[in-house]
Amino acid sequence: MSGQILHLLRHAAVERPGLYLGRTDEPCTEGGRAACLARVADCEFERIVSSPLVRASEVANGIAAARALAVEEDAAWMELDFGAWEGRTAADIDEANLRPFYDDPDAHPPPGGERWTALARRVAGAIARLDARATLVVTHSGPMRAALAGLCGFDRRQVWAFDLPYAALLSLRIHPGAPAIAQIVGLRT
């Protein structure tokens, strides 16, 4: 079956897990980088795109060096901006504020943060800019979920049904059209 292959790799484990890290540039662990490199060892792609945040770009640069490829950074693949929640744990945030965010992140974005639809638009634009080459994107769980919503038609609640831990690899086959649609052809966690 034809169609463009898009692999979405969640960045490596970070030094301080369990925090809302949207735009916060948190370093990743050496073990996390190794897990990401191992995850894509048998994955075929001709292009690497990365979020510019260090937890993604360090992984992308390691993969690129091993394959003699260049990394293209694209800020559209950055995580959702969590505003006032940046660097905090879920336990630090009042449940009365957190639950509405998960139920409807457009109506209840984090204070000073980004709405789900803004993330979805960024990711849709980034996907539209890709060419036909098989591509690996090193990104974050939010953009991966936005890609599932946009390409597969999942609603916001359905995209949370996917477990996307650090180093998760989601592979999609994109079929062109208006709008483009995709099939999930692999999920490795």
How is this structure best described in words?
The chain has 189 residues and is α/β, with parallel strands linked by helices. The model has no long low-confidence stretch (mean pLDDT 95). β5 and β6 (181-188) form a beta hairpin. It has a single domain, classed as 3-Layer(aba) Sandwich (Rossmann fold), CATH 3.40.50. The chain has helices at residues 30-39, 54-67, 95-103, 116-129, 141-152, 156-159; strands at residues 4-10, 47-50, 71-73, 135-139, 169-175, 181-188. It is globular, with a radius of gyration of 16 Å.
Largest sheet: 6 strands, mixed
Could you give the distance between the termini?
Answer: 25 Å
- Please state the average pLDDT score: 95
Q: Could you please say which CATH topology applies here?
A: Rossmann fold
Q: Kindly estimate the percentage of residues that lie in beta strands according to DSSP.
A: 15-25%
**How many structural domains can be distinguished in the coordinates?**
1
GO molecular function: phosphatase activity
Organism: Allosphingosinicella deserti
Protein name: Histidine phosphatase family protein
What layout of secondary structure does this protein have?
Blueprint: E1 4-10, H1 30-39, E2 47-50, H2 54-67, E3 71-73, H3 95-103, H4 116-129, E4 135-139, H5 141-152, H6 156-159, E5 169-175, E6 181-188
Parallel strand pairs: 1-4, 2-3, 2-4
Antiparallel strand pairs: 1-5, 5-6
Task: Provide the descriptors you would attach to this structure in a database record.
6-stranded mixed sheet, 189 residues, Rossmann fold, alpha/beta, 6 strands
How would you concisely characterize the structure shown here?
This protein is of the alpha/beta class and 189 residues long.
